[in-house]
Design goal:
This protein is α/β, with parallel strands linked by helices. The chain is built from 9 helices and 8 strands. The strands form 2 sheets. Strands 5-4-1-6-7-8 form a 6-stranded parallel beta sheet, with helices on both faces. Strands 2-3 form a two-stranded antiparallel sheet. The N terminus is likely disordered.
């Protein structure tokens, strides 16, 4: 979004987060969103577009790739994948309905992949003594597929004491309302020391609710609402470099 710049010292921010977790162990909580924070859902988007191409007889869409998605503009992705403007206008309403029936499902979220360094960083957070709280706007119907993806890519999986898994419990709650309710559940786990989210509105709310915590914005994609990240909230591109690289999380004191 205009006016937003990525923070230059990404490794330093991540080291600071781990240091805070170690200092607060074993009670401190680290909060992580999923979509566009820990997980890249563009492969899911690409697969849905490919499937629509098969169903609608549009060969150009069979080559849809994750990089064709920038944000949430379905019509723009169709154009980048190779449809003409006239074809996009003709198929966009049908594709939107096709997409809506598939995107929020366990079957399709299995195509998600981690952001660079994300599994390693969450494992490092757990090793530092933090309790992990996955807090996502995904509906509970996506639980099976989400847990499969987390396990396949080596993220710490939910357990009763050290890792919590909070998904949106019902269709009547939008993401903002759900995350406001989820904050109370997270606080029952222990003091929050770090929180990561890609949505400016959500990370801003975390920063206001937990002023002592390090709240970090993931500068990936978001809903496009005209909301600026608070000045005190740093932004990072992902969770790289990998553990063990020069200047990596493993080098934290």
């Amino acid at each position: 979004m205009p006016g937003r710049a990525r923070t230059a010292d990404q490794p330093g921010i991540l080291r600071d987060a781990l240091a805070r977790m170690r200092a607060a162990a074993p009670r401190g909580v680290a909060v992580f969103d999923l979509d566009s924070t820990l997980l890249d859902n563009r492969p899911r988007q690409a697969r849905i577009l490919q499937d629509y191409g098969r169903a609608a007889g549009l060969p150009a869409l069979l080559g849809a790739r994750p990089e064709h998605w920038e944000g949430w503009d379905l019509a723009a992705a169709m154009g980048r994948a190779g449809l003409s403007p006239a074809e996009v206008r003709r198929h966009a309403p049908r594709f939107r309905r096709f997409w809506a029936g598939r995107f929020f499902t366990s079957a399709f979220c299995r195509f998600d992949v981690p952001l660079p360094g994300a599994p390693e960083f969450v494992r490092a957070a757990a090793a530092a003594g933090a309790r992990i709280a996955y807090v996502s706007g995904r509906p509970r119907e996506m639980e099976e597929g989400t847990l499969e993806v987390l396990g396949r890519h080596g993220f710490p999986l939910p357990e009763r004491e050290r890792t919590a898994f909070l998904l949106n419990p019902g269709p009547d709650l939008d993401d903002t309302a759900w995350k406001a309710l989820a904050r109370a559940e997270v606080e029952r786990l222990g003091p929050v020391v770090a929180a990561f989210d890609n949505e400016p509105a959500h990370v801003n709310a975390y920063a206001r609710a937990w002023p002592e915590a390090l709240c970090v914005h993931l500068d990936t994609d978001d809903s496009g609402r005209p909301i600026e990240v608070l000045p005190q909230v740093p932004s990072i591109a992902d969770f790289g470099p990998p553990l063990g690289a020069a200047g990596s999380h493993a080098a934290a004191p």
